[in-house]
Specification:
- This protein has 11 helices and 14 strands.
- By secondary structure, it is α/β, with parallel strands linked by helices.
- The longest helix is centred in the middle third of the chain and has 15 residues.
- It is globular and about 50 Å long.
- The structure holds NADP nicotinamide-adenine-dinucleotide phosphate.
- NADP nicotinamide-adenine-dinucleotide phosphate binds next to strand 14.
């Protein structure tokens, strides 16, 4: 397992994170087997959120039950959850970063997860009405009460982080962003800037270089999805060239395309973690195998070009 330095304090953490968004239909036995497989492969980092599964909290509840049935398991894990997305009674989602709501969300997550603390707590998606002073108070209280050890954000732009950090005494150590071969805007835009109209549009405020500058670890979510979690790009007839490029490099190293899709992200020098959502033991192993491969410049840019991104 590749170990990467997380945040400003450079905490050593595994590069592969087990995502749990798709655990909603699994039994506690199946979840325990996945977590044991993760540990066997060298990763103990688990990502979840209050909003995974329906009704709200379903996946956290399944995880909590799994911990209850397997004493000692939770203590082996670095447990991360997210809050800030909530729901009307009719199921429509909205965002709420008020202090009261965040404190309530955290307590509900801890209760469902049957644990007294989270190792990492992230704000899930920007709230238009957020007051950074309030979030700062919530984070400081969570920390003082020993309920959260480390903090971060997700899908957040640089000025949102700056605004929060202006008031927050605890460091923002993580920004979880969608990033994959098929969803690579944050690294394509700086390459295309000033040259290629479409790809040169700055949609995220330069978040990739900002996070590198501030030692904020990027956690790449949905490493196998295109669009906004629209579907798998691997073996998808919509992306023949991209798949050919990935297959070329997979053949070179004698590994699966799954491994190469993760290796492509890990090769970026930002030292990202990759949040893999597979529940299949073989594919989890294929994701972890990416840690043993360091793509060359030529491998990386071959895939980049096959994915259709412009260079000149
Ligand atoms: N911060 C955010 O806003 C945000 C948003 C979305 C997700 N996330 C986090 O990111 C994690 C990963 O997201 P995701 O599940 O959408 O991402 P993913 O890892 O890109 O996709 C996993 C899905 O693809 C399927 N799959 C089929 N063939 C595959 C292959 N060859 N290799 C890998 N997967 C294959 C998996 O099925 P099998 O299980 O059958 O392998 C699974 O359903 C989530 O669990 C969550 O923790 C965060």
């Amino acid at each position: 397992m590749k170990i990467v330095p997380l945040g400003q304090n450079k905490i050593p953490v595994p590069a592969i994170i087990q995502g749990t968004m798709r655990f909603d239909k699994l039994s506690t036995k199946e979840v325990a087997a996945i977590l044991e497989k993760d540990l066997e492969l060298g990763t103990n980092f688990i990502d979840t959120a209050n909003c995974y599964g329906k009704p709200e909290g379903l996946v956290e509840s399944i995880l909590g039950k799994t911990f209850e049935e397997n004493p000692g398991l939770r203590d082996k894990l670095a447990l991360q959850s997210k809050g800030g997305i909530t729901f009307f009674d009719d199921g429509r989602p909205y965002h709420n970063y008020s202090k009261e709501h965040l404190m309530k969300t955290l307590d509900a997550s801890l209760s469902r997860l049957k644990t007294d603390h989270l190792d990492y707590f992230l704000l899930h998606r920007s709230d238009a009405l957020f007051r950074p002073e309030e979030v700062a108070e919530a984070f400081e209280l969570m920390k003082q009460q020993g309920k959260v050890l480390h903090f971060g954000v997700s899908n957040e732009v640089p000025y949102g982080i700056e605004l929060l950090q202006k008031y927050c005494t605890v460091p923002i150590e993580i920004n979880q962003m969608q990033f994959s071969i098929a969803h690579a805007d944050m690294c394509v835009q700086p390459i295309a800037t000033n040259n290629h109209d479409f790809y040169a549009v700055d949609r995220d405020g330069g978040v990739l270089n900002y996070c590198r500058l501030k030692d904020i670890t990027i956690q790449a979510w949905s490493p196998f999805q295109y669009g906004f979690i629209e579907g798998l790009f691997l073996d998808n007839p919509k992306f023949p060239e991209m798949n050919k490029g990935i297959q070329d490099i997979a053949d070179k190293y004698g590994v699966s395309k799954t491994t190469i899709a993760v290796a492509w992200i890990l090769r970026h020098p930002a030292n990202m973690q990759v949040v893999c959502g597979t529940t299949n033991h073989q594919r989890i192993a294929d994701c972890c195998k990416a840690c043993d491969i360091e793509l060359t410049y030529e491998d990386w840019y071959h895939i980049y070009l096959c994915a259709g991104y412009p260079i000149m």
